[in-house]
Amino acid sequence: MTGDGIETGYLSPYLVGLGFSRGGVGAIFTVYGAVALGAFLAGALADAWGPRRVMAVGAGFWACCHVLLLTAAIPLGSYPLIMAAYGIRGFGYPLFAYGFLVRVMAAAPRRGIGAALGWFWFAFTLGLPTLGSLLASALVPAVGAYTTLWISLALVLAGSTPALVLLREPTGRRPLLPGGGRDVRATLRGSVTILFSSPRVGAGAVVRLVNTTSQFGIWVFMPFCFTGTLGFDLSQWLRLLTVMMGANLVFVLLFGALGDRWSMRGTVMWCGGVLSVVGCLALYYLPAAADRNFLVASVAAALFGAGLAGYVPLPPLMTAQAPERKGQVMSAYSLGAGASVALGPLLGTLFLGPLGTEGVMWIYAALHLLSSLLVRLLPEPEAAAPPR
To answer: What's the rounded Cα separation, in Å, for the pair 55 and 94?
Structure first.
């Protein structure tokens, strides 16, 4: 995930520097929302194929599309080819990452599932934006943006290979469907119909959609606000991303344990939805009011990162609504996660012009408030579990 996350803080300014418009770059990241389909497929295919095979397909897909991006699309300066290569690459990392998430959900003991998910998101977040942004802040000035993208490929291969070769845990090496069934079409149909046949699962998918919609939008559009309007330089913005996701690292562990010990629903509602509302607004208003004070901006970034972590107990809260269809529920969860990659930049593309950055941040805050209301529809796992 470090390799996948190196580009997070600088790719949109880099593409603008190649001569593409901000709106055009926003459209590229919106097409990258193909990640939504990859995330959706991860849970369904893990049911039919087993999580390890899904992880292998995802790693291979990411590497092939990234090579196409670097050897053809960017050197030619072709906007359609960049959009196609980068957008299609969006299938790769969710198949790997969410395939592994399903593996965690299938293998972890129930009493420790919140803590297990906390460690999953700790590793995910440590890589994707945190170490990725930190490395980028050092590598881009030293070797350039293009060479840094080649380094990201090396890191992805270095991380995915031992995960596929050395991890011997048996649950992930076989289909998760009872009896080892391999009817992919039936599994995919069930992963769609569960959104409607179990409305609480559908509500949980919307909550997951909201969880990182603001995050992916902010990663694309806030660099322009911080480096243009507010006067920070790109290295400072990358360090703020590191602070943001460093705080997220700490709080995914704390909020995962809190969900186990106190309330999964309460943790998502208050530590996720409500705290994210505060974080969104703080990230816009505090740095502007403090006149480029990096410490104040860091506090705002940390608040936002902590709020995102509050959603960590959501998967067991959702699977408790249909425990016999765990893989399909995780497809719904992953669909929400993947769709947020497209929705965040799309909201910015649509509303940045008429409403400005301030208006877009209020939209993100309103969505987080909606998520805190929707999660009230999901009973705690003990109440939702079928009688033994």
So the answer is: 9
Q: Are 164 and 56 in contact (CB under 8 A)?
A: yes
CA distance 20 to 147: 20
Query: CB atoms < 10 A from the CB of 268, how many?
Result: 29
What residue type is 85 in one-letter code?
A
Average pLDDT over residues 335-342: 84
Is 80 exceeded by the pLDDT of residue 205? yes
Distance CA 274, CA 277 (A): 5
Residue 247 reports pLDDT greater than 70: yes
Count of Cβ atoms closer than 10 Å to residue 354 Cβ: 8
- Taking the alpha carbons at both ends of the chain, their separation in whole angstroms is 39
- What percent of the chain shows pLDDT beyond 70? 96
Contact 7, 74 (CB under 8 A): no
Q: How many domains does the chain have?
A: 1
| CATH number for the domain harbouring residue 341 | 1.20.1250.20
